[in-house]
Amino acid sequence: MTTSGEEGYYPNLIEYAEKKLEKIHPQNKILWIPRSIIKTDKLKHNEKLELKNDITDWIQKMYSIEKSLGHENAIDTIWSIIYPDVRSTKQVEILQKIKKKSKINRIKFCDYNSWDKYDVHVEIKKMDLKVDQKCVEMKRNLEQRKNIIITPIHIDFNLNASLSGIELNQIAEQEKWKGNEAFKVGDYQEALHFYNFCLQMNASNINGYNNRAITFIKLEKYEEALEDCNIVLKIEPTNIKGLLRRALALEKLGNKDQAIVDYIHLLKFQPTNNNAMEALKRLSIKKKQ
Questions:
Q1: Longest dimension (CA), the chain
Q2: Measuring CA to CA, which residue among 236, 263, 231 is closest to residue 247?
Q3: Hey, how many other C-beta atoms are within 10 angstroms of the C-beta on 119?
Q4: Which range is least confidently modeled, 112-126, 153-167, 253-267?
Q5: Contact between 236 and 228 (Cβ < 8 Å)
Q6: How far apart are CA 143 and CA 182, in angstroms?
Q7: For residue 100, what pLDDT is reported?
Q8: How many CA atoms lie within 13 A of 113 on its CB side?
Q9: pTM of model > 0.70
Q10: For residues 22, 24, 27 and 31, what is the CA-based torsion angle, rounded to 10 degrees?
Q11: How far apart are CA 181 and CA 219, in angstroms?
């Protein structure tokens, strides 16, 4: 549909096409009506009051969250978010210098001489080297953190009872993140330690169970992985990761028929899942043999 008028203007046809488009795709940009920005002085009294109340409610909510986390001067923190400090000219200059340094020197599409000299294999090796260096650095950081933790932390009921729900969730997320970092560098035993701690803090953390399940699979503890996946799928029956990891655990335990059921069930929710499709091909070949 064109509204330029260059090929001729047909208002009835445009109106009909727009009505049809609205039914098929109501959010389409063609249907958007451009409007000027409304300033506060143009708002009605009740609209201004509604906005003011919304902002006040948000401030009070943030204040209560900050206070529950034990942060002193919580209201100062909130106001610093709403009204950030104005950057000085020196800060702006420093930021501009950083931006200039961080710019990637890309070869222009029309610079044929540079493209002739460009070696794809060398560039891929450079990228691989950067990834390896990052893994080594993460491993080093993990080792340093291990040295700091002298004794394992045990969580008892009294400590859990003394913490608020927000604090427990925050600690759980931090421990899950530590577990993710350990998992990335292949330290699955350390990752398991952090995921256990995460789930002690928040027993309903679906991502914690999912992450611990794949860690159990890596450690060849398939029964434990199956238990975690069952917990995930009890909370959220359509969880893709839970279905995929349960199917993998079942496959490793030799229960191929049930694994196939889970893979097929998964593809109903995500038909383009490559892992599930490859697994079904693999299992069907084994079955024929």
A1: 80
A2: 263
A3: 9
A4: 153-167
A5: no
A6: 10
A7: 59
A8: 0
A9: no
A10: -30
A11: 16
